[in-house]
Structure formats: C-alpha cells, structure tokens
Inverse folding.
C-alpha cells in the first residue's frame, strides 16, 4: 500500500510546484511581497494578521488570503482590521495548495497591494509540504503549545524563514523553557529570525513589524518600485 | 488534478478501513478497551496520558501507543508515568493509520492490558479521516487555542465520543468564551461527553478518570471479563 501511494503523491506535488512557480511569477510581476503563515490551530495566526494589518495599514497596502476548513471567521477578522480579505474554504483539505492560491489571486487587484499575507490552514504537518509560491514562510508558534514542538515537528521548523513565538504573556502560567525551545529551533534552522511577542499585550510586536516592513521595502526596491 | 486524486484516496481509505476492522477484532478478542486521543499540537494529549496513567495505574493495566512525526519524547513520558509504551514515528505522515497501529499491537502483550491509549499525531484535520480500530475517540482541546475551534475544524469535533477541554487554569489569562465554544461543539455533536479540566492543577480530572474507568469496566463486563 505504501509503495502504491508514493508515485501518486509525487505526481500531485510536481503539478503543485509548477503552479506555485506561476503564482510566484505573477506576484513578482505585480510587485506584491507575500508571506505564508503556518501554525498549529490556535497559535494566533489570525491575531498576528490583525495586529500586522492594523499597525501597518498607514504604510503599506495589505491583503490577506485566509485558508480554513470551514467558515469565514478569519477573513472577517482580517477585513475588520483593514485589509482586503479573501477566504478559501478547503472543505476538508488539511493545507492550502498552489491551485487554491491561484484562485484567490484571481479575485484580487494585485496592482493595489504591497504586502499579501496568506494564512494557511492550522496544521503543523501538511502545509509545510505544499509550496504556494509565496516569498517567505513564517511559523507562528505559541508558548502554551509547549517547548518540545521543534523536536516533534521538525519539518515545520526546518522550512521557514521566520519564527514568531506568540503568547509570551502566558510564560508565568505555563511550563515553557524558552532556551530549550530556541535550541531545538536553532538546530533545525540556524540563524532563523525569531520574534517572541504577544498579540494580546503588544509586547515584541515592533521588532516583528520592522522585519515585515523591511522585507517588503527591500523586495520592492530591488524591483525598482 | 482533483478528479485524478479522489479514487486513489478512496482506495487507500478502503484498505485502511479493512485493517482497522482487523485491529478492532483483535482488541475485542483480547479484552483490551482502546481510546484514540486526537488534538492540535500542544493541547496536552501527553499530559492527559500522564495523568490518566499515573492515577489509574493501581486499578487498570495500561498501555500507550504514541504517534509522532519524530522523537520518542511522548512514549518516554508515558513510560515514566507507569504505562507500557510504544512509540510510532510516522517519519512525516500527518496521522496514524490502521497499518501503523497493527505494527504497534504486534509488539504488545495484549493479554496483559485492560486499557490502551493511542496518542495520535498532533493535527486537527487528518487523523479524523483514518480509522484505527480503537473503540472510542477523544478530542483534547485546550483553552489557549481559542473558542472558535469547533466552528473552524468541524470534522474533528463531529467524529469523536468525548471532548476534554484542557488548561482551564488559563481561563483568567486568555479570551475564551466557554459558552460559545461549547455551543459550537454541541451543534456538531449533540450530547458529547465533555470534561473541562486542567492537567496542571488537577481540577476536573476526577470526572474524566471516572468516565475512562466506567467505559473500560463496561467493555470488559459485557464480554464477561
């Protein structure tokens, strides 16, 4: 059974890679810098989207594509924070893929966007295997999930470009060894840009927003925009 | 691409269902009552395993099968709490399936077990689609994940037999509307046995342990054991 499954999965992934490259070319041409947010359910992806959108709305033109199994709760929150928001309901699929992103890009006016945030389905495993075509991936971890997560979900930590450690305001109330957590992440992904913060209290958000702004500006500057 | 994928997935699921039925027959014959724990990463499945094992060790003979992408951290914790523990590393797969459980059952002495707890991979989506053959499924939710999870992950809430709401000790520090959360769960799964508790403080654990003990005793009694 295992042998039978492998070639099919490879074929699907190959098609996905090609579509992801198409999505990337389209974003590049339009001058849209894009981030893919990955996380467990409840780590705070949507709260980070809300904070990022509401605090950068005066400086950057933002859009958000929200992937969920069901509901438009996340897109509603992103829109309320001030972004153009599109909801994708996967109807059961455990991750976004490049086809789904293509469909969402079709309904956006890319010429009116500087920064696009894609909020993937809450899942630490599957989204890491499906490229979307976005420029950078951001893993949103959270303190109450526990400090062993880099060790147990190495694929998610290995493939990302930035790590947000959300809910640091809960550190006094849970057993979380920040040094052990960061050592695990660093072993998988040396030099990973890391942002401990709290979307609830605002602590640490400035450093994260500076990173996002600098990455977006650098992307546009190198394209003469 | 979608049309091409569906029949293959159905074929894999069909094979899985048959193996799950084999696993169930084997557990029934040996008089082993079995629970499948599902949850997001970090909701506290392993903490609940630890508490359940250490508090019931005098009354029931317990074994734990731990599914993880990588590491044996969870099986180590279950063994330290007093259970016979087997670790399955899926090596990337986002869920356990019936073949993996079959392999783990092979290395256990089922005649020496009353209650088997299977700790699935931390993932709110995929494990719900793969039957293992266990008797009951338990969803472990946690307060810091947020009160919108039943609405966003309906498949996980619809298919389970009991719901643990862990980390109630964090209720004063997060925005979590218990009534909204439980209304969502009840809409998907009316009459679901629900256990708000804290593995950290011990609050609410007695009701959960009573349910587990009663279910196990009832299973054995109806088989004349």
């Amino acid at each position: 059974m295992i042998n039978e499954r492998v070639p099919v999965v490879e074929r699907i992934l190959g098609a996905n890679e090609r579509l992801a490259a198409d999505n990337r070319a389209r974003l590049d041409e339009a001058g849209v810098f894009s981030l893919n947010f990955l996380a467990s359910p409840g780590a705070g992806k949507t709260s980070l989207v809300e904070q990022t959108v509401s605090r950068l709305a005066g400086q950057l033109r933002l859009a958000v594509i929200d992937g969920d199994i069901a509901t438009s709760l996340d897109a509603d929150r992103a829109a309320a924070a001030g972004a153009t928001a599109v909801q994708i309901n996967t109807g059961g699929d455990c991750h976004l893929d490049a086809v789904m992103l293509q469909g969402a890009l079709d309904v956006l006016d890319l010429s009116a966007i500087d920064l696009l945030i894609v909020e993937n389905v809450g899942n630490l495993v599957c989204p890491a295997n499906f490229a979307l075509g976005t420029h950078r991936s951001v893993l949103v971890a959270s303190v109450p999930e526990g400090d062993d997560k880099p060790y147990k979900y190495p694929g998610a930590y290995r493939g990302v470009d930035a790590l947000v450690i959300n809910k640091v305001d809960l550190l006094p109330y849970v057993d979380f060894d920040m040094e052990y957590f960061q050592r695990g992440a660093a072993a998988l992904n040396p030099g990973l840009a890391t942002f401990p913060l709290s979307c609830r209290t605002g602590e640490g958000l400035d450093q994260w927003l500076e990173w996002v702004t600098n990455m977006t500006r650098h992307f546009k500057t190198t394209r003469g925009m």
Observations:
- Helices of chain A lie at 2-30, 45-56, 73-81, 98-106, 149-152, 154-158, 178-188, 205-222.
